[in-house]
Amino acid sequence: MPPNSQTIERDNAEGKEESMTRRSVWVLCLLPLLFSSTGNITLAQESEPRIHVVVNMVQLNVAVTDDKGNYVTGLKPKDFVIAEDGIRQTLATFAEGNGPAHRLVPQTVTGENTEPAPGQQEPAGPPETVDSSQMASLASGANVFILFDTSNYMYRGFVYAQDAIADFIRSLDNPHQVALYSYSRDLSRVATLTTDRSQVLRSVRSTVAGDDAALYNCLLLTVKDAAHYMGRKVVVVFSNGPDNSSVVPPEDVAELAQSTGTVIYMISTQQAKLEPVSTAVFERMTAATGGKAYFAKTWRDEQRAFASIRDDLDHLYSLSYYPQANTNAGWRAISVKLVGSKKKYHIRTRSGYRPEPAQVPPRHTASVD
Predict the structure, then answer these.
(1) Residue 31 above 50 pLDDT?
(2) What order do you get walking across the sheet with 91-96 strand by strand?
């Protein structure tokens, strides 16, 4: 018997409802859970649903070196020109090395930035104001997460690696907070972020080797942990070989690190160097976030690599800004240049970020007694 008109209408309505439900679930699943360090911009079009993205203060860690690899010090805010998607930005704060962060007075006419003169009132009102909690986090040193390879790649030279990590922890200045994570197939948060060096050093000696290596899985989780903190965020990876059990692609890890302003440094032994794919991935990932990749032949090379990272932390310029109006809700490219100098300097920082999508609030709320 052919269906009557009421049956057809009911079936069509149920089909539409089911399609809308699937579409809503699909859209929600696409919202990445990024913890970006980047006020609110609303994009609206007549024929499309409104999309909200969250773009708070963007912080950059910038290394400036000359042709010989020496750090360039003494630069001022006026020496830097920052653009996002080609749009000139106005600096909100500035710091050199481990020195205090300075709140800058925006110059709306010239587009330059200057530090407040003695007795001059700082600007008030969003978005130029940097609140006291933000300033405190910017001036408190770096949050350093050490990710130690304890997979079965690390059986040989395990004690030497522990020694190199311990020396690195002792060498860090007091403003820095340090956490120790280890990984094989799973991530172990051996010591959470703290200024207590003795606690972290004891944790180094408690690590043991074994199991396969899921580097990218565990690095992604480490970057997510670091993203909860303001200020400088650094992940230092010590790896003795390639990844052989991750399901997360390294490109996803690099993008999350860029979007959250997390710098990744990687120290690897020659074992990884023997695999061209791993070598290329390590170099691309660190360069995209403003970090470096090191390949150590001996335990002395490992110590030198850690010393180089410590020097880098001591010489980074910390710059921040509130993005100018930008309709781009996707990937935003960042460029940093120096002006007023005829010398050829090299600048290393993250290449961009993706704004965090605003969370979709639930339609209904219910309380449970």
Answers:
(1) no
(2) 102-103, 91-96, 317-321, 58-65, 346-348
Of residues 171, 140, 152, the one with CA closest to residue 233: 140
Q: By the 8 A CB rule, do 235 and 220 touch?
A: no
The amino acid sitting at 229 is Y
Burial level of 195, CB count in 10 A (0-12/13-18/19+)?
middle
DSSP 130: -
Task: Measure CA of the first residue to CA of the last residue in the chain; give whole Å.
Answer: 52
Residue 117: partners with Cβ closer than 8 Å, 6 or more residues away: none
Sheet with 332-338: list strands edge to edge: 87-88, 80-84, 332-338, 352-353
Lowest mean pLDDT among 49-58, 77-86, 321-330: 49-58
Answer whether 327's CB lies under 8 Å from 348's CB.
no
Q: Which residues does 179 contact at the CB level (< 8 Å), separation at least 6?
A: 143, 144, 145, 146, 189, 191, 192, 193, 194, 200, 225
DSSP letter (8 states) at residue 77: G
Predicted model pTM: 0.76
* Predicted confidence (pLDDT) per residue in 235-263, tens digit: 999 988 788 899 999 999 999 999 999 99
Q: CB under 8 Å to 194, separation ≥6 — which residues?
A: 177, 178, 179, 200
| H-helix or E-strand spanning residue 285 | helix 276-289
- For 286, counting Cβ atoms within 10 Å of its Cβ (0-12 exposed, 13-18 middle, 19+ buried), the class is buried
Cβ burial 222-257 (10 Å sphere, 16+ → b, else e): bbbbbbebbbbbbbbbbbbbbbeebebebeebbbbb
Pair 230, 141: CB distance under 8 Å: no
Q: For residue 75, what are its two tokens?
A: 């630069």
Note the pLDDT of residue 155: 66
| pLDDT tens for each residue of 212-235 | 899 999 999 999 999 999 888 999
Please name the residue that has the structure tokens 């909860």: 228
Residues linked to residue 53 through DSSP beta bridges, in sequence order = 41, 357
